[in-house]
Amino acid sequence: MSEKISELPAFLKNTYILIGGWKENSLVDVLESVSFTLWTSRCNFKCPWCGNSKLARGLGERKVPIADIIRALERNLGFIDYFHVTGGEPTLQHEPLEAMFRYIAENLAVKNSLDTNGSNPHIVKRLAKYLDHVAVDVKAPLSQPDKYSRIVGLPLGATVEAIAKIRNCILFLCKKVPFLELRTTMVPEMLGIEDVVEIAKELRKLVENAEARVAFVVQQFIPYENILDPDFKSRPRTDPEMVKKAAEKVLEILQIDVYYRTLEDGVKKLH
Ligand code: SF4
Q: What pLDDT shows up at residue 7?
């Protein structure tokens, strides 16, 4: 154990978090950056196409002291740009999350990053002062609760509430973090190019006075092994040309950085 590691304060050793695991060097979780990525367990959404559904349901989760995560992070400080937390939905465990982000912001030379479905803006507001980058999923047009409800697997009433919170979250983050990334996944038979265009039009109003750097990423659906609804396992991944075309249309609407992410091309920025 290094001298630095033995200096960790007691609150880190006595605070635990439920996780699926972590990856010490990831090239795919934060745009154009290397991250130490932590996957927290459990989610309040039930997206039928979720590729992390075991994690989202808490299956195979481990309860670990956050000191163990900080120790692993410290060993990688020279190789990474961000400490990135994704899930599941990280904001469901706000106390250990805040303790980690706060300790890192105050003590370590690495930036903090959060990936969220946007449904807990009150938690995001508490964390914002420690965050350098936040990715928010916009899973369907915000003006179409029926569609959003099908895509996130929640009843309509809960979805209407969630959408109001997601809007609130985006509006807040536009002003309060250096870098906001908005992400939409093109799920086959659920979300097509016209939906991505609709999302971009809706976002135009939300981000027009942003002080943050704002980027939009159109993502390909990939039928991973752990998908929640078996019906989605047999669906092909989204046509990469369609993903690119959707991103090109977004670029015509939003005056921000636009990217697309596919297995075939990796992450590409449009110019
Ligand atoms: S895809 Fe949906 S269910 Fe899966 S982790 Fe993200 S928000 Fe939760």
A: 74
CB distance 143 to 202 below 8 Å: yes
Q: Name the residue range of residue 163's domain.
A: 3-269
pLDDT of residue 185: 98
Residue 206: which CATH number? 3.20.20.70
Amino acid letter, residue 234: S
Task: List all residues whose CB is within 6 A of at least one atom of ligand 1.
Answer: 43, 45-47, 50, 52, 56, 87-89, 117
Mutational test site, ligand 1, from 38, 42, 46, 47, max ligand atoms within 8 Å of CB: 47
Mutate to test the pocket of ligand 1, among 50, 136, 184, 229 (most ligand atoms within 8 A of CB): 50
- In which residue are the tokens 């992390």 written? 52
Cβ atoms < 10 Å from Cβ of 180: 26
Q: Locate 85 and state its tokens.
A: 């937390």
CA dihedral 163, 48, 114, 79 (to 10 degrees): -160
Number of domain units in the chain: 1
pTM tops 0.90, yes or no: yes
